Amino acid sequence: MILEMRNVTKYFGKRKVLDNVSLTVNEGEILGFLGPNGAGKTTAIKIMLGLLNADSGEVIINGYSVKKDFEKALKRVGGIIESPDMYNYLTGYENLMLCARMHGLGRERVLEVAEQVKLAGRLNDKVKKYSLGMRQRLGVAQAIINRPNLLVLDEPTNGLDPVGIKELRDMLRDYARQGAAVFVSSHLLAEMELMCDTLCIIEQGVVIAQKSLREFITTTDTADRLNYTFSVGDLEKAVALLNANGYEVTVSDSLIHAQITKEKAAAMAKLLSLNDVDLYSMTAEQKRLEDAFLQATHGSKDQIS
User: Fold this and answer.
1) Fold classification of 3-76+148-218 (topology level)
2) Which residue spans of the chain are classified as CATH 3.40.50.300?
3) pLDDT of 157-192, one tens digit each?
4) HSE (CB half, 13 Å, CA atoms) of 4?
C-alpha cells in the first residue's frame, strides 16, 4: 500500500469539512476521487500532501506519517493541486529545470518528461504564451520529473482537448503499470470511467464508498439483472409468446424491454427463434459511472464536480 488516509477529520471554524475520512491507494492502481461541489475533495488532497493539518487522523505515504515524517513521506510524491504553479516569464524548459535541480536532476530528465507530455516542440516558449492545456501538460511534467511512486492530480484534464485527454490517460495508465499509485480528482465522469481502476466517492466530507470501477457499474438494486432491449420482426407475436411463457416485458418505440438476467435473455432469444420470430438485435443497457455516482450521492448532474 502506497497511500493510506486513516480517519481524517478537518474543521474550518465550527464547520466539519472532512468527517473520519479513510481511503487507500495501492501500487499500480489509479484511484478516482469523486464528489459533488463542496464535498471536501481539495481539502482532503491538501491534507494528504501536508498543505493543511488535519484536526485528527493520519496520512501514511510509503510507510511514513505525513505529520511526523513530512520529508520522508513526501520524498517520492508528485502532484498538482487546483492549478499548476509556474513562472510565466520563464520558458517551459526553464520552469522544468528549476524543478529538476531541486531533485538533483538535469537536462536529460527535462527533455524526457517534455516528450512524455507532448510538450517538446514548445519547450522554449515562455509560459505566458501557453494555452491552458499546455500549462496543464507542463504541470504534469513538473509532477513526474522526480519519478514519484505516488502521483496526486487535482483536475489534471483542465484545458485539454479530447486528444490531449486521451494522451494523458494513456500516460497515467502507463505510469501506474510501472508500479506507481495514481490519485486523480476530476469532474469528468466519462473520463474517470476510462481511466481508473478504483473509485472513491465523498459527499459532505464523508467517504460513502470505495470500490473497484467494475463493482460500481455492475452493482445494481436488482442484483445481476440488466435492462435488455429486443428488436423483432413480428412485435405482436413476440409479446404474446413471451407473456405466455411467463416473461414480464414492456413495449416502447416498437421495441421489447425486459429487466432480466443474462441467462433469461438468452432463453428469451432462443424462444423467439424456435417460434419463427425474427430477432434483429438484443442489447443490454450497462450501468454507467454517472448513474452509479448519482445513485450513491442522491444528486443531480449539475452537482458533479
Assistant:
1) Rossmann fold (3.40.50)
2) 3-76+148-218
3) 877 888 888 888 888 998 999 999 999 998 778 788
4) 11
